[in-house]
Amino acid sequence: MVVTILLFASYAEAVGVPSVKLDVPPGATVSEVLELVRALPGAGALPPGPLVAVNESYAAEGHPLAPGDEVAIIPPVAGG
Amino acid sequence: MVVTILLFASYAEAVGVPSVKLDVPPGATVSEVLELVRALPGAGALPPGPLVAVNESYAAEGHPLAPGDEVAIIPPVAGG
Amino acid sequence: MRALLTREPIDSTALLERVAGRANGATVLFIGTVREVNEGRAVTGIEYSAYESMAQRELSAIVEDASARYGTPHVVVVHRLGELMLGEASVAVAVAHPRRAPAFDAARFVIEQLKKRVPIWKLEHYVDGTREWVNAGTAHR
Amino acid sequence: MRALLTREPIDSTALLERVAGRANGATVLFIGTVREVNEGRAVTGIEYSAYESMAQRELSAIVEDASARYGTPHVVVVHRLGELMLGEASVAVAVAHPRRAPAFDAARFVIEQLKKRVPIWKLEHYVDGTREWVNAGTAHR
After folding, report:
1. C14/D contact by beta carbon, under 8 A
2. Which of A56, A57, A80 sits opposite D115 (nearest CB)?
3. In terms of DSSP bridges, do strands A2-7 and A70-74 run parallel, antiparallel, or are they unpaired?
4. pLDDT for D41-91, tens place per residue?
5. Mutate to test the interface with C, among D12, D19, D35, D114 (most CBs of C within 10 A)
6. How many angstroms separate the CA atoms of D49 and D37, rounded?
């Protein structure tokens, strides 16, 4: 199944693109997809356990993904 | 010696005037002067231990007064 | 003058400008306004009076104290006197500080101290035509 | 809309008007501004970006939460995005409430929650020509 990875701020700069589509095994979890993201060029610098949002809501590492999910990797937030 | 008593808000309304001069014994304390104030017409309704300021600073009951002092009897404050 | 008694409407935008400073990352403004209902009674208007010379001294002392305690010169307070209509501001406090926690704390400190020790009194006028001196001991805000 | 992302300068007077209500006796406004110096480095400007759709949802959720928790519908928050100059407001929170303690607490709650969970990022530009993504874990305000 295909999911969309969204990258922001320092993460988008590191990888060089703001989003990428990945083909992942059905039912893959957030942490499994993170491992695939880490294999992308430039993505080695991602921190060990980044915050992740699935479809605009924060999700735990074990959260199983569905086809078409939008998986955002959230750098440390700095609003305010 | 003569001191000036200042009355405000509900206290001024009760006594009917905003200030009154009183002749008090030399060295009289705040609480001694309060007793004289209580004898004024309408002043019986003053509460037992009102806040008092002498020359614009809060003063304790035992504070001795000097000639010309301005003794303000402060109703419960309600600013803000 | 960082502490002021005034008979004019309070201009809170001007207060914000007064405390601005390039080192400040946080600004907190508190505004107290005349409420429609107080202690369950419908209010039509309000009248503030003060022992003005002492109130001025106390307000100034509170601002000095807040500045020293929280570490910023950017503290101002204005209290309105005279007759106010519903919804008008009776008091405004503005604080700017490099960091937000002390900005909040200093603004809160100023209004709490003001309510404890500044000789200002409030006469409320009610819909039924009566009036009453508000006793801070029973009033809340 | 009680929670807003904007690329225009923040109008804090408009925010105060938005939260006004006749039952309210207390209004608290918090403004975060771009500081000249952050962590000892001279800042020339700042750029905010966001995961906008999620940031909007999170901001709205925080406002809802603050309203329920502190008991007032009069809570608004605006966060600026894009390039900001020194001294400009990056964020403003306004709360009005019948009483002052919950007005302060609700404003504080909104800004603390915003800094924890809203996906917004800050790129600082420094006098020496360098730039850096600010990590909230090391930033203070």
Report:
1. no
2. A80
3. parallel
4. 888 999 999 999 999 999 999 999 999 999 999 999 999 999 999 999 999
5. D35
6. 20
ipTM of the complex: 0.93
In sequence order, what are the beta bridge partners of A29? A64
> C-alpha distances in angstroms, C20 versus C28, C50, D8, D17?
11, 29, 20, 21
User: Do residues D43 and D35 lie in contact, with contact meaning Cβ atoms separated by under 8 Å?
Assistant: yes
**B vs A contact (3+ beta-carbon pairs below 8 A):** no
Residue pLDDT, tens place only, C1-56: 799 999 999 999 999 999 999 899 999 999 999 988 777 888 898 999 999 999 99
Residue D99, token pair as written in the block: 């009483």
User: Any CB–CB contact under 8 A between D28 and chain C?
Assistant: yes
Query: Quick one: which of C65, C69, C75, C68 has its CA closest to C97?
Result: C75
* H/E run at residue B4: strand B2-7
Tell me if C29 sits within 8 A of D29, measured CB to CB.
Answer: yes
Q: Which residue has the tokens 């939008």?
A: A70
Contacts 24+ apart (CB under 8 A), B69-72: B69/B3, B69/B4, B70/B3, B70/B4, B70/B6, B71/B3, B71/B4, B71/B5, B71/B6, B71/B30, B71/B33, B72/B5, B72/B6, B72/B7, B72/B8, B72/C51, B72/C54, B72/C119
Q: Let me know: does D115 contact D30? Beta carbons within 8 Å.
A: no
Other Cβ atoms closer than 10 A to A80: 24
pTM for the full predicted model: 0.94
Tokens of D42: 């001279």
Residue B75, Cβ density class (10 Å: 0-12 exposed, 13-18 middle, ≥19 buried): buried
The verdict on a CB contact (< 8 Å) between D26 and C33 is yes
Total beta-carbon pairs less than 8 A apart between chain A and chain D: 71
